[in-house]
Amino acid sequence: MERIHRLLPPAGKCPILAGNSPFYTPISITRCQSKPFTKPASKSAIELRFITNNRDRNLSSSTGPARAGWFLGLGEKKTIMDLPEIVKAGDPVLHEPAREVRPEEIGSDQVQKIIDDMVKVMRRAPGVGLAAPQIGIPLKIIVLEDTEEYIGYAPKEDIKAQDRRAFDLLVIINPNLQKKSNKSALFFEGCLSVDGYRAMVERFLNVEVTGLDRYGQAIKVSASGWQARILQHECDHLTGTLYVDKMIKRTFRTVENLQLPLANGCPKLGIR
Ligand SMILES: [Zn+2]
């Protein structure tokens, strides 16, 4: 249940997008033939975890494992459950800007697989959002989703205060986020790449995100409340920013201490 409150999900690593990467080979645009996503995942499937091994991590990387960014499994025989693990804080891929996905890359098998993996990893966590760098891919792709089931685990007073409402799966490539008002809110948030901790972060209450969907079509998302927070958190990942870079430091705490009172001098939770 604790995981439900996280903004993001876990998984492994994937290949670096270096100049010699397959990603740099010009590719023709093809329409995605993928079937619509089905809801996860039996309980047992969600609980399964697979560890990325070092052999996988070194695939196609010419700069060595220290650089992070592997195309996990490209060209390898993988089972359906062989999903990437979530990259944790400290890996450079989480602290450096991601690059834009070129239009001609969107229809490629590689990018479509990355998106599929991201959705599966997010749901496996489970989490309500994930950015490609969190599975080791330095590309500007985010996925997010909040469900009645997840929300059902949260205290009612939190749901109301946070203006948290369910929304369907969103896949946004090359997102561009803009605030739509100066209103902001302070709430605790977490990150699957910073496992086991929470801190208060100030976020805009209303934002608009433009970008491309997984078929390369332009999309615009207007969001408020908790969905706006998720979007800001995920878009931050694409600039190499974690919530701990923006948090109110004196509110940082373990998940176990989440309910403890704020220290003297900390701002109050809620809308400002
Ligand atoms: Zn995160």
Taking pLDDT < 50 over at least 5 consecutive residues as the criterion, the unreliable ranges are 1-79
Mean pLDDT: 79
* Strand arrangement, major sheet: 1-2-3-6-7
Bound molecules: zinc ion
Distance between the termini: 29 Å
**CATH C-level label:** Alpha Beta
Rg, alpha carbons: 18 Å
The CATH topology is given as Peptide Deformylase
Order of helices and strands: HHHHEEHHEEEEEHEE
Count the E strands.
9
Give me the CATH architecture, please. Answer: Alpha-Beta Complex
Keywords: Chloroplast, Hydrolase, Metal-binding, Plastid, Protein biosynthesis, Transit peptide
EC number: 3.5.1.88
Protein name: Peptide deformylase
GO biological process, one term: translation
Describe the structure.
The protein is an alpha+beta fold. It is 19% helix and 20% strand. The chain has one domain: Peptide Deformylase (Alpha-Beta Complex). It is globular and about 50 Å long. The N terminus is likely disordered. The structure holds zinc ion. The site of zinc ion has 6 residues, from α7. Zinc ion binds next to α7. This is Peptide deformylase.
Detail the topology: elements first, then pairings:
Layout: H1 43-47, H2 54-57, H3 103-106, H4 109-124, E1 129-131, E2 141-146, H5 148-152, H6 156-161, E3 167-179, E4 184-189, E5 197-204, E6 206-212, E7 218-224, H7 225-237, E8 253-254, E9 270-271
Antiparallel strand pairs: 1-2, 2-3, 3-6, 4-5, 4-9, 5-8, 6-7
Residues 7-8, 191, 193, 233, 237 line the site of zinc ion.
InterPro entries: Peptide_deformylase, Peptide_deformylase_sf
EC number: 3.5.1.88
Catalytic activity: N-terminal N-formyl-L-methionyl-[peptide] + H2O = N-terminal L-methionyl-[peptide] + formate
